[in-house]
Amino acid sequence: MGKAQKYVLLGDATYPLQDWILKPYQEDDSLTQRQLQFNYRLKRAHSVIENAFLRLKARWQILLKCDDCSLELLPTLVLACCVLHNVCEAHDNPFNEEWLEGAEPSELPKPCRPAPASMEDGRAEQVRELMCQYFETCGEG
């Protein structure tokens, strides 16, 4: 593998496997224990991300109404909410669990059907395999 990959996005089975998109192995009886562990950890990471976005939307409920703002403003708005959220966390401004009542979890947009195999990057399997090996050696976490 050439350059070191610093970041990857997490996708589900509908996304094409790319060296920058990690997706789980196809669930079937032929998966090894290591592949099952990889899928489990990917699902856990995905749930942490969903929870973080839910808490962000609950604290900054303007994010629930983003369909009102222009597309050009949206990245700045989300970034500002992230910065303000981190400031609140750093200064022990507690998160009010009641805020969650107004921010229902929603499915993140994703492709409707699986991406065709032609979109998959053969080199991406190396990245997934390296992550799989890493999960195996780093213990439970």
TrEMBL record:
It is found in: Nucleus. Transmembrane segments: none annotated. InterPro entries: HARBI1-like, HARBI1_dom. GO terms for molecular function: hydrolase activity; metal ion binding; nuclease activity. Its main location: nucleus. Its cofactor is a divalent metal cation. Residues 5-86 form the DDE Tnp4 domain. Pfam families: DDE_Tnp_4 (PF13359). Keywords: Hydrolase, Metal-binding, Nuclease, Nucleus. The keyword Nuclease applies. GO terms for cellular component: nucleus. Belongs to the HARBI1 family. This is ALP1 protein. It comes from Eudromia elegans. The gene is Alp1.
